[in-house]
Write a structure and sequence with these properties.
The complex is a heterodimer. Chain A is α+β, with helices and mostly antiparallel strands. Chain A folds into two domains: 1-42; 49-185, Sandwich (Ctag/Cox11 (Pfam 04442)), CATH 2.60.370.10. Chain A has two helices and ten strands. Chain A has helices spanning 10-42, 175-186; strands at 50-51, 64-73, 80-83, 87-91, 96-103, 110-119, 127-132, 138-140, 145-154, 164-173. Chain A is flat and about 75 Å long. The N and C termini of chain A lie far apart (83 Å). The model of chain A has no long low-confidence stretch (mean pLDDT 88). By secondary structure, chain B is mostly helical. Chain B has 14 helices and no strands. The model of chain B is unreliable at 1-18 and 539-543 (pLDDT under 50). Classes of the chains: A alpha+beta, B mainly alpha. Bound molecules: protoporphyrin IX containing FE and copper (II) ion.
Amino acid sequence: MSQQKKKLSNASLARRLALISVAMFGFGFAMWPLYNVFCDLTGLGGRGVKIAEGADGVGGSDRQVRIRFDATVNSSLPWDFEAVDKAMTVTLGEMSEAMYMAANPTDKPLAGHAIFNVTPPEASLYFVKTECFCFTQQVLQAKEAREMPVYYFIQPDLPASIKEITLSYTFYPDKKANLALTESAGK
Amino acid sequence: MSMETTLSHDTPAHDDHHHDKPRGLARWLYTTNHKDIGTLYLVFSLLMFFIGGSMAMIIRAELFMPGLQLVEPEFFNQMTTMHALIMVFGAVMPAWVGFANWMLPMMIGAPDMALPRMNNWSFWILPFAFTMLLSTLFMDSGGPAAGWTLYPPLSLQGGQSFAFVVFAVHMMGISSIMGSINVIATILNLRAPGMTLLRMPLFVWTWLITAFLLIMVMPVLAGAVTMLLTDHFFGTSFFNAAGGGDPVMFQHIFWFFGHPEVYIMILPAFGVVSEIIPTFARKPLFGYSAMVYATASIAFLSFIVWAHHMFTVGMPLTGALFFMYATMLIAVPTGVKVFNWVSTMWKGSMTFETPMLFAIAFVVLFTIGGLSGLMLAIASVDLQYHDTYFVVAHFHYVLVPGSVFALMAGAYYWLPKWTGHMYSETWGKIHFWVSAISVNILFFPQHYLGLAGMPRRIPDYSTQFADFNMISSIGGFIFGASQLIFVGVIVHCVYKSRQKATAQVWEGAKGLEWTLPSPAPYHTFDTPPVIDETTIAHAHSRH
Ligand code: HEM
Ligand SMILES: [Cu+2]
């Protein structure tokens, strides 16, 4: 019967339960690194894309896959940004080039940086970029328009179930750099 | 009635607060008595129910016709967000804590809650939390308007008042956690000798499990809103893609809290219905231990289904399949419960007093909500239903004729025990029928609206949705108005009713609370009762 077992006092029971709550508060924050590990493993959020600067493809394969290119600008960056080719068919393992076009229609210089994503998420694990405008911050002078290329290839071991891949970019303003740019323009 | 009935006035006092209870405001401010605190919680939640309800009336009035009629879209969004926050955290959850305070000690033969002073704190935090939350409506940047789910980046585009929302959520969380610790300590430590775990009434069981859910997930919500706060005001990038974060991660954290949260609102309802149906069917609950295990498995499963709220944000196929099947699995223990309630009624000598009417309506209408939930769980079709009125219909069926009806059933069931008087059965029944009919007029058409593609959280819609919206709004106005009857019945019962309640109140009622006189004395079970097989509600089913 429950009465015979030695019970914890109310206070120490309460303390232990409160400890569970504190641990769960910590768990909420631990979701951040856990989620990152999960993304790295599954390729979610474009996290699987590899960077291999200077690489040159790995030799052709007989399979082809269709790549679609998407471009978005965050509402707080007044740029025009689009993919020159909306889609292309590439041979696995071979180097390809995709061209984007960005323009700054305002009369002041603005800096932005691009964040990318890949769907389906698994596909990002086979996506290799050798050069991309997203590697660094981009500055467009007043009224400047510029082509922004991406060089990439798809590894030949891409699962056969994947027939189409979408590569998507969003340009965000680089707030700190923009502050510096306006200051130096003011001088 | 057995002799164990303990009138505390005759027994020596344990605590000093026993002798003189202060009067007026001080009594309520400093009280550590579980019945007083229970009353405070219940009155507070009723007030919130009406504040949240008025917001729903504004929403339904705007949606009465297509086009923008009454309010600005920004204000409309604040109304949908606030309505949900108030109803979830201000009405339903505190109401269940109120029931726990009043009933748990009386059901397990305890003199009070285990930690009475903390109990006082957990209640008195709430009025401050909700004053803070409501005050945002009067600030320059307005109340929160991104939905109760507070998804970034939208929720981060609000103004300075967002900080108030975050701190209000923190306070509600602290209140719930303290309340839950109290519930667990009371149930584990203060049961009368002989009240073994598997003899506890189901309301006690469901609350024990709910309390564990609460202490595990409220801190996760607190973490999520803290990250929103630092993203908004301190330049972190937890959920900001530009800074390397991911807004989708917020959804994972939120729903890790959010799905258990919906069960936090429904498990005590399961408990109350499991008390009421045996009483009015005059039969012991069918499958008592199955009910306990079903509740525990629902609680466990509720931790592994969260991403069924996120099928449309994109996830690997295996993920979608996992969350789909896990979600469908919950329907099994839920089905067990519905089956057991129906079996309890089967061949019972049933009478249909107001609590029983609400309990039966609960069983039928909650099941409708469960079935639409199953439809939503199918990952491939959820792409069509997600963020439409179909989801709105689903969760309102499980929450309004679900949780809220169970709250009303419980209120009518125990009101005579609390006040010592019978409420007006005629007006109780009128309240029931008007509510039960209007709630269906209100929410059933929303299924069709959703299937036809009407998105949720919008102040205007295209004209093909007009008819069903008008019907829904009419149902809404009737439902809203009929809750005034509820208040009338309570006020009448407390202040006017002259019909004295007996100790047992209901002919078929079993359980320790019914061995106490009505109204239950200020202090009860100062000496533990002797547990007698005939007074325990579930004794029969086990022998
Ligand atoms: C058989 C049981 C249930 C199943 C299978 C189920 C399934 C689902 C699914 C799949 C969704 C997401 C729909 C979407 O957003 O596209 C959902 C939403 C929801 N469910 Fe359930 N559900 C069940 C029971 C419940 C219960 C008991 C409650 C509360 C008492 C509840 C409350 C909610 C709420 C509040 C939402 C919407 C949250 C939001 O987006 O604001 N559900 N349900
Ligand atoms: Cu859920």
